[in-house]
Write a structure and sequence with these properties.
- It comes from Dendrobium catenatum.
- The protein is mainly beta.
- The protein folds into 4 domains: about 60 residues; about 50 residues, Roll (SH3 type barrels), CATH 2.30.30; about 70 residues, Roll (SH3 type barrels); about 60 residues, Roll (SH3 type barrels).
- It is built from 2 helices and 24 strands.
- The strands form 4 sheets. Strands 1, 2, 3, 4, 5, 6, 7, 8, 9 and 10 form a 10-stranded antiparallel beta sheet that branches. Strands 13, 14, 15, 16, 17, 18, 19, 20, 21 and 22 form a 10-stranded antiparallel beta sheet that branches.
């Protein structure tokens, strides 16, 4: 792809400490015969004069257009993203959602360094690859390796150390709930997790437990909830350190709701921030409750 003077682009580098990042810049000179461009960076400044943006000549192979993407600020766990850090965009994977959905921050894992950092939604964008003159979503690409991954293989790759997950239990009194946790260690389809809110019997430290792939799932997608929940809408309510599925049985006002739990046959009042739209994790995909109901 040829660029003209004034085009907004991104530039990568093989220099130590910069490898793997893309830096925003503008084309100030095109040299097609040499297959090179002179660019001026948006955020990188000269070492000797911080008031001047750095200008350098680079090979065309290190230049690409700026990606076009939807700026909705909502990202899913395990989604490949670019995070803006140290004046450039670095590839990583969303490993957790921090805070409420309304005021979310995301933790991002960087496979190249093993680091985990926190970012605001405005500092992230979906990761896209520039391949043969086109933007490609890596999540839509089909592997060229023959065969289909088993559920166990998929779980082992999905739930790596540090991944935010939710865990269910068949124990009496816990059936039907999903408890926030973090993967501490994974071995095939077994996972050692540390619960976010559940503690040991003496309440001195977070509870750790080994679970199998049937009792673990990613954190549900960070979809912005509606401005208010509707009567009879299926929701998850945060109660007793876990998320329990229920149905809105009464709308008190936009901030307070009565939720009916079929499991117990009880109604409990919740504030808006302790509720979320209900999703089901089926065969490696998230479905809204309305989608599930339409199957029957």
């Amino acid at each position: 792809m040829d660029f003209k003077t004034g085009d907004e682009v991104e530039v990568c580098s093989d220099d130590e400490g910069f490898r793997g990042a893309w830096y925003e810049a503008k084309i100030v000179r095109s040299m097609p015969r040499l297959n090179r461009y002179t660019v001026v960076y948006d955020s990188i400044v000269e070492e000797t004069d911080a008031s001047r943006n750095l200008r350098e000549t680079v090979d065309a192979a290190y230049v690409r257009p700026r990606p076009i993407f939807a700026r909705d600020g909502v990202f899913a766990i395990q989604q490949p993203v670019d995070a803006f850090c140290n004046d450039g965009w670095w590839e990583g994977v969303v490993s957790g959602l921090l805070g409420s959905v309304r005021r979310a921050k995301y933790s991002v894992s960087f496979p190249s360094t093993g680091d985990v950092m926190e970012f605001l939604p405005s500092e992230l964008r979906p990761h896209l690859d520039w391949v043969n003159g086109e933007w490609v979503d890596p999540q839509t690409q089909v592997s060229s390796v023959p065969g289909v991954c088993s559920t166990e293989d998929m779980s082992g790759k999905m739930f790596q150390k540090g991944t935010s997950v939710e865990v269910s239990s068949d124990a009496e009194g816990f059936h039907g709930a999903w408890f926030p946790a973090t993967v501490v260690k994974s071995v095939r389809n077994k996972f050692l997790v540390e619960y976010r809110d559940l503690t040991t019997d003496d309440e001195t430290e977070p509870l750790k437990e080994t679970v199998d792939s049937l009792h673990i799932r990613p954190t549900p997608p960070a979809i912005l909830p509606p401005a208010k929940f509707k009567y009879l809408e299926e929701v998850d309510a945060y109660y007793n350190d876990g998320w329990w599925v229920g149905v809105i049985s009464k709308v008190i006002d936009d901030s307070n709701y009565i939720v009916y739990f079929r499991t117990w046959g009880q109604e409990i009042e919740f504030r808006y921030e302790d509720l979320r739209p209900h999703h089901d994790w089926i065969s490696g995909r998230w479905f809204r409750a309305s989608q599930i109901l339409s199957f029957y």
